[in-house]
Each structure stands twice: as C-alpha cells, then as structure tokens.
Write a structure and sequence with these properties.
This protein is α/β, with parallel strands linked by helices. It contains 6 helices and 7 strands; from the N terminus they run H-E-H-E-H-E-E-H-E-E-H-E-H. A 7-stranded mixed beta sheet has the order 3-2-1-4-5-7-6, sandwiched between helices. Helix 2 packs parallel to helix 3 and helix 2 runs parallel beside helix 6.
C-alpha cells in the first residue's frame, strides 16, 4: 500500500524501511545543521527521534533554520520541531527535551537506548562529553565540526576525525579525543578557511540583542558573533542524515 515513504522504499526495500522505523535516533542541537538533519531523518522514516536543545527560536535564526518563521519566534526549538515531525509522520515517536547537554546534565540521559546519535551542538565541552559517553556505550555518533563563517556548501567531507585537516574545531577535537583514548569518530567537516564576520554594530547582536527574554545562553556571551547563511548549514545537516540512514540500513551509497 502506498504511503509517504513509498518512494524511499523503492531505493531501500521493505526490510531496510522496517529497520528505519524501528530505529531510535537522538539529535543534540536543533539549529541550522541539526534542524535539517532532523527533517531528513523524519522524511526517511526513522520511527523514534529524541530532540535535545534548550534554546528558543530567535529572529536571527530565520536566515538558516528550517523551523524558524515569524510565527515560531520565541517558541522552544524542540517543541516546534516535534510538531513538524508529527505533521510529516504522525506515527513517529518524538521526544522533546529542553536541555543543554553537558557534564552537568549528561547523567540524566541514557545514551545506550539509541541506535545512533547526531551531534550538532556548537560547544566543544558538550561535543566531548557526548562523544565520550556514546563511545562508552558503544553507540555510533556522527559529529558536525561546524558550519558558521563558511560560504562553500560543496566543500563538506565525511571522514574520521583523525583524517581531518585545516578545520580548527576538528584539530581541537582530535587533540582532546586522543587524550581520552577515543579511537574513531565520524565527522562532517570542511577544509574551507573560515571567513571573519563583518563588524557591523548596526546589525550586531552585541548591541541589539533580540534573544527571547528568558534565553539561558544568549549569543552575546560569545567571543565572536558567527556569520551564517541559508545554504551551508543545511548541506551539513543533510549529509549527516544521509550517513545515519546509510549506516542504519547498511547501504553503501545513497
């Protein structure tokens, strides 16, 4: 019988589609990268998706985040994403957790329950905590090395963290993971040199912060407000989703 996944089933077959439906995936960070990753996972038929992010949608998210519209500004990202997933697939089981992952909150989350984990968070502390705990549980992870301050969506590559080069975030991750004896990590990264954001105080969040009032971690705490766009973060997120689907179905090419 035809359903919303019939065209996907023509590629993967019924056995793989069943595997996707019975899989449980956690996505940490529902921003420009994570939001598009979740979208593709939901449209591919993943049956259970847990969303982790404590942020609310800000007006400045509209340039790149798939869940950001004028209607959703001020709402929690996980709540909006959950509603969107269920609109795509009402049979999905979607958990929405308003939580910033880190050493203080990690103990409350059993990572061993997942078949795959997507790391789309943007802080090094959170990434390291997530990757190390997932490794201890034997759960596969794919990690984004960041998409801010980039202009070339065709420059992304999928590699093991120890085969990366150029990317500053990947360099730090390699160093820190080696110290923790983590032997491998699949990442999506770019060798494109990062641009330096224009210092325009008329459009800077530092002078004109418009984060929702109760935002826990406002962007003004950053050393530099990152530049981003509508076409680079989505590509990173879609590549990550493709790798998850490929690995869960043991498909060599998509």
């Amino acid at each position: 019988m035809l359903d919303q996944f019939s065209r996907t089933a023509l590629q993967f077959g019924r056995v793989s589609m069943r595997r996707l439906y019975t899989s449980k995936v956690a996505v940490f960070g529902i921003g420009g990268v994570g939001g598009y990753c979740v979208e593709a996972l939901a449209r591919s038929g993943i049956g259970t998706i847990d969303l982790f992010d404590d942020d609310r949608i800000c007006l400045t998210n509209l340039n790149r985040q798939i869940i950001a519209t004028h209607r959703t500004v001020g709402q929690y990202k996980v709540d909006v994403t959950r509603e969107r997933i269920l609109d795509i697939n009402p049979d999905a089981d979607v958990g929405a957790y308003k939580l910033f992952y880190g050493p203080e909150t990690a103990l409350g989350i059993d990572l061993s329950q997942y078949d795959y984990i997507v790391d789309a968070v943007d802080t090094m502390t959170a990434k390291l905590e997530l990757v190390c705990r997932a490794d201890a549980c034997g759960v596969p992870v794919i990690s984004s090395m960041g998409a801010a301050n980039k202009l070339d969506p065709s420059a992304f590559e999928v590699a093991d963290i120890y085969d990366t080069s150029v990317c500053p975030m990947a360099r730090v991750m390699r160093h820190e993971l080696r110290k923790r004896d983590i032997r491998a990590l699949k990442v999506v990264y770019s060798k494109e040199p990062a641009m330096t954001p224009i210092e325009d105080m008329e459009s800077s969040c530092r002078r004109h912060c418009i984060c929702p009032p109760d935002t826990a971690r406002k962007c003004t705490i950053r050393r530099q407000i990152p530049a981003s766009n509508a076409f680079v973060p989505p590509v990173a997120g879609l590549i990550m989703a493709g790798e998850v689907i490929k690995d869960l179905t043991a498909t060599q090419a998509i």
